[in-house]
Specification:
407 residues; Rossmann fold; Calcium-transporting ATPase, transmembrane domain; three-stranded parallel beta sheet; 16 helices; 3 strands; disordered C terminus
C-alpha cells in the first residue's frame, strides 16, 4: 500500500489502461481515503464505475455503463460535472454559514437575557426586541447566507468525507470564540454601561414610564445642588422617577443596539467558513440578496430606534451613541480573524458532539415500522421485499393501505 501511495501521489495520466488497471486504481485510491469519481461509456468501464464513489456515464455510452453509473450525462457535457461539484460544495458551505451564525446568535442572546435578568431583575431585551433579533437570525440570515453563489476557488478545496459533520471543528471554533466575545462585551455593557454613558438611575427604577410628567419649577437647580425631592412634592418625585426611567431605558437601548450590530458584523464574518479564510470582503457585491438583507436590517434598526422608538421601547441616541454601538459591533470582524489564527485542537477538548450529534439516530416510528417489516420479509425469503401496508395500518381499509402515519 505504501508503494501505491507513492505512485498515486505522482500519477497524472494512466494510458492504455485495461479494465483491471482502472479497477485497481479506483479501489487503491479509495483504500487510502480518497473520494473517487469515474467517467465511462463502454462495457469495459462497468467495474470501475461500480467501485467508484460516484460513477458518471456518458449519454452516448452503452446501456451497461449507464446502468452501473450513479449519474448519466445525457448531453455528454463533462463540464456539467464540475458545475455540479461546485454547487454541491457550495450548498454544504451555505448550510455551515447559516448554522454558524444562528448558533452564535442563540448563545449570545441567551447569555445576555440571563446575565441581564440577574443584574437588573428583568430582561434588558424586551419581547419586541427579541422578536426582531429572531427575525435577524432566522428569516433574514437564511435569505442572506443560504443564497451565496459559489466561487471558482471552491473546486480547489479538499472533498468532504461522507461522514463529515456540517458543524466542523472550524465552525465550532468560530461559534464558541465569537459567542464568548459577545458575552464579554454584553456583560461589560450591562454592568458598566450606565457609568460610561453618564446615566444615573436606581436599579429598582421602572423602564416603562413613557409619558413625561410636568416639570416643577427649580427642578434642575435642585438636582444640580444634590437636593432630593421633598416627600410632599409629588410633581418633583414623579418627574425624578420619569428621568430615571428614561436613563434606564437609554441604558437598555445601548444594550439592544450593541447586540444587534455585533450580530450584523458577525453575519459578514459567516460569509467565509474556511479554516484560514480571512478575506470576508471577497466578492462582497456578488450576492444581491446578502447586500439587500444587510442594508435593510441596518436601515430598519436605525429607523425603529430613531424615529419609531415606541415600537421597540427604546430612547433616541445621539450621533456619538450610534457611533459607539457600531464601533463595538465591528470588533467581531477582528475577533473572527484572530480566531482563525488559533489551532482547532482546543475545540476538540470541548464535547461539542454531545451538544449536537448529527449522527444520532432519531426514534422515528415510520422508519422503525418500515425496517421491521423489511427485515421480516427478508427473513422469510421474500425475494420481492414487499411491504404489507395493510398490516402496518393495523387492519385498516384498502383506502388506508400505505398510510404510514398509523404505523
Amino acid at each position: 500500500m505504501q508503494g501505491f501511495q507513492e505512485i498515486a501521489a505522482n500519477i497524472r495520466v494512466l494510458a492504455r489502461a485495461s479494465p483491471n488497471d482502472r479497477l485497481l486504481l479506483v479501489t487503491g485510491l479509495k483504500a487510502i481515503g480518497k473520494s473517487v469519481a469515474v467517467t465511462g461509456s463502454g462495457i469495459d468501464d462497468v467495474e470501475a464505475l461500480t467501485a467508484a464513489d460516484v460513477g458518471l456515464a456518458m449519454g452516448s455510452g452503452c446501456s451497461a455503463a449507464k446502468e452501473a453509473a450513479d449519474l448519466v450525462l445525457t448531453d455528454n457535457d463533462f463540464e456539467a460535472t464540475l458545475r455540479s461539484v461546485m454547487w454541491g460544495r457550495n450548498i454544504y458551505h451555505n448550510v455551515s454559514r447559516f448554522l454558524q451564525f444562528q448558533v452564535t446568535v442563540n448563545i449570545s442572546a441567551l447569555a445576555t437575557v440571563l446575565i441581564g435578568g440577574f443584574w437588573f431583575g428583568e430582561s434588558p431585551l424586551s419581547p419586541v426586541q427579541l422578536l426582531w433579533i429572531n427575525l435577524i437570525m432566522d428569516t433574514f440570515a437564511a435569505i442572506a447566507l443560504s443564497t451565496e453563489p459559489p466561487l471558482a476557488s471552491v473546486l480547489q478545496g479538499v472533498p468532504f468525507k461522507s461522514n463529515a459533520s456540517i458543524l466542523s471543528g472550524t465552525v465550532w471554533r468560530q461559534i464558541l470564540g465569537v459567542s464568548l466575545w459577545n458575552i464579554i462585551v454584553m456583560t461589560f455593557l450591562i454592568v458598566f454601561g450606565a457609568l460610561f454613558a453618564g446615566l444615573d438611575y436606581e436599579m429598582k427604577t421602572s423602564s416603562s414610564l413613557l409619558v413625561e410628567p410636568t416639570k416643577p419649577d427649580g427642578y434642575d437647580q435642585m438636582i444640580s445642588d444634590g437636593v432630593k425631592c421633598p416627600d410632599a412634592n409629588t410633581d418633583c418625585i414623579n418627574y425624578n422617577q420619569w428621568e430615571q426611567s428614561v436613563a434606564k431605558r437609554m441604558h437598555y437601548t445601548y444594550i439592544f443596539n450593541t447586540f444587534v450590530f455585533l450580530q450584523l458584523f458577525n453575519e459578514i464574518n459567516c460569509r467565509k467558513v474556511g479554516r484560514r479564510d480571512f478575506n470576508v470582503m471577497e466578492k462582497f457585491l456578488h450576492n444581491y440578496y446578502f447586500i439587500g438583507v444587510l442594508a435593510g436590517t441596518f436601515a430598519c434598526q436605525i429607523l425603529m430606534c430613531k424615529w419609531f422608538p415606541r415600537i421597540t421601547g427604546t430612547e433616541q441616541m445621539d450621533k456619538s451613541g450610534w457611533g459607539a454601538c457600531i464601533a463595538v459591533g465591528t470588533t467581531n470582524l477582528l475577533v473572527s480573524a484572530l480566531l482563525k489564527l488559533t489551532p482547532e485542537s482546543w475545540v476538540s477538548n470541548i464535547p461539542t458532539q454531545s451538544m449536537i450529534d448529527e449522527d444520532k439516530q432519531i426514534d422515528n416510528k415510520v422508519l422503525t415500522a418500515w425496517n421491521k417489516k423489511n427485515n421480516a420479509f427478508a427473513a422469510d425469503g421474500n425475494s420481492e421485499g414487499a411491504i404489507n401496508y395493510g398490516a402496518m395500518s393495523n387492519g385498516g381499509s384498502a383506502a388506508d393501505e400505505g398510510d404510514f402515519t398509523k404505523a
